[in-house]
Design brief:
By secondary structure, the protein is mainly beta. It has helices spanning 34-37, 50-53, 206-210, and strands at residues 85-94, 104-108, 134-138, 144-150, 155-157, 163-165, 168-174, 182-188, 213-214, 227-230, 233-235. Bound molecules: fe (ii) ion. InterPro entries: Intradiol_dOase_C, Intradiol_dOase_core, Intradiol_RC_Dioxygenase, PCDO_beta_N, Protocat_dOase_b.
Amino acid sequence: MTEFGINTPPETGAFLPRDRNWHPPAFTPTYKTSVVRAPQKALISFDNSLSEVTGPRFGHNLIGPNDNDLIINFARPGEMAIGQRIIVHGRVLDERGRPVPGVLVEYWQANAGGRYRHKKEGYQAALDPNFGGCGRSITAEDGSYWFRTVKPGAYPWPNGVNDWRPAHIHFSVFGSGFAQRLITQMYFEGDPMLKLCPIVNTIADPAAIEALVAPLDMSNTVPMDARAYKFDIILRGRRSTPFENRREGN
Ligand SMILES: [Fe+2]
């Protein structure tokens, strides 16, 4: 019996079942738009088929030389984005701690003033003509990725009467199979807006929130240039490594 009251056999597919107590529930009325987005019917679990076990493969030739440098990838020649210069780096791992190489990591964010470059953006903070706000990387053999950007600003949004998003960077990650696809957000250590955010507060487990907060990483700071933040991303675990004929431990 699942938490949704549906009798389904336990998942035995290639990937471990998703922990629905770790991820926020779909229906969270304090985050208003979740009300219309949430499924109306109970969920049903089923085993992974080929469409979940497999996924697109991304070669390194997909990535341009400045795709992981948001300070210059949209800037006019010789100019740079305005803001606090930071490096974001980490590793993409699965739930069992194994690196996931060759993964497309895409990221997008508001500029230093908290403004997105989007036609539906309504916040009055100024656009930065030299900041586009998006980039991408492919993870290396050890699952690592990194990019350079400016620290995004907090911004207000129409939810409650005075709700603000903490500074954050959005991430989309394609794993080795569609079952690992993850859309998430990274926050910054020490941000007082975190505990006030209705979206952050849809997450029940404080440890799960902590996993979204990137600590300041002075050991990877570039002196006189940019501070670093470390953000590891954990995808669903495979029961066995790809292309392996036996389960681990057998
Ligand atoms: Fe955002």
